[in-house]
Amino acid sequence: MKFQAACAFALVALATLVAVDVHAMDYPERNITVVVPFPPGGASDVTARLTSIKLSERIGKSVIIENRGGANGGLGAAGVKSATPDGYTLLIGSIGVYAINPGLYKNLKYDPLKDFDLLSLLVRTPNVLVTSPDFPISTATELIAHLKKNPNQVTFASSGIGSSDHLTAALFWQRTGTTGVHVPYKGGGPAINDLMGGHANASFQNLGAVAQHIRAGKLKALAVTGEKRAAALPDVPTTAEAGIGDLVVYSWQAAAAPKGLPADVRAKLESEIAAAINSPDATKQFNDIGFDVVASNGTQFTEFLAAETQRWKKVIEAGNIVAE
Fold it and tell me: Do domains 8-124+251-318 and 126-224 have the same CATH topology?
């Protein structure tokens, strides 16, 4: 009887292993949907479309983009949280969706660290401290001195309350002991346009969104928030070089899936996504729009997100920032 029981157990275990192997070989059997929790045209949308094209080429199935905007990305993220965790619904969103919203909204309908299988930190880009062309400041040091002499007089445009550019400005004020007037816009485009027109004084904007305007003389760049100077703006110092401590900031985009993916599906998604965006042509396309490819695995992204969430929660609390 013991021998028969042992044989039966061995057969069950073998069947389980075979099922896992078959599952791994078969996935994906149909098209994959990538939810972008913002309208078309923004950084998350562009990242998702570039990633999806390369991922589709690798897996032999279509990867369809579905834009579900609303609530600073929260609407789409909450929808993905509730989807079946089978690898056929993914989320590609920004630092705001994953790291800022938890500190900004008291009744957020999802928890990025608990409700998702985090797959990869895909790409990142530093922000650039820029001013309007006629603003009488040429360096970050001059700006800090000007802000201290003129508290709450300089306007800082942003793409909205709680956006990366808003919180970078808040962190800048906290690190330098200065103040400014936050002017939120409905998106980065309108903020940049008003900045170029002289209707706002300064802003922290994504490198890719402003590099061309800086080169054209329509904006002045004072500093970049990266760990090193940006290849696109080699003459612009980092915030550290400008004497501002602890102001290394990146806006980033990442991929996740509903919590509970089969282990083999998760492993395949992680490896295929990394291979897709690390391909030479994908890397070049991302670099051309100001992004560096990171392509971390899920474990690395989870550790990074835990630290980012705490960092921005402290900035939000210190600045008394409240979502509309």
Answer: yes
| pLDDT tens-digit series, residues 168-201 | 999 999 999 999 999 999 888 899 999 999 999 9
* pLDDT value at residue 18: 44
Query: Strand, helix or coil at 178?
Result: coil
Q: How confident is the model at residue 39 (pLDDT cuts 50, 70, 90)?
A: confident
**Gyration radius (Cα) of the chain, Å:** 22
The structural domains of the chain, with segments of one domain joined by +, span 8-124+251-318, 126-224
Give bridge partners of residue 293 from the DSSP assignment. Answer: 123
Q: Where are the alpha helices (DSSP H) in the chain?
A: 2-26, 43-59, 74-81, 95, 101-104, 140-149, 164-176, 188-196, 207-215, 263-277, 280-288, 298-318
6: which 2 tokens?
Answer: 């042992």
Judge whether residue 299 has pLDDT over 70: yes
Integer angstrom CA distances of residue 94 from 69, 82, 222, 262, 264: 12, 19, 25, 25, 26
Q: Are strands 32-36 and 89-94 parallel, antiparallel or unpaired?
A: parallel
The answer, yes or no, to whether the previous bond of 28 is cis (omega within 30 of 0) is yes
- Range with lowest mean pLDDT among 37-41, 210-214, 257-261, 304-308: 37-41
Architecture field, domain 8-124+251-318: 3-Layer(aba) Sandwich (3.40)
Q: Which two tokens stand for residue 24?
A: 């791994």
Tokens representing 118 are 């985090």
Both tokens of residue 266? Answer: 């998760």
CATH of domain 126-224: 3.40.190.10
Map residue 64 onto helix, strand or coil: strand
- pTM value? 0.87
Cβ neighbours for 189, distance < 8 A, ≥ 6 positions apart? none
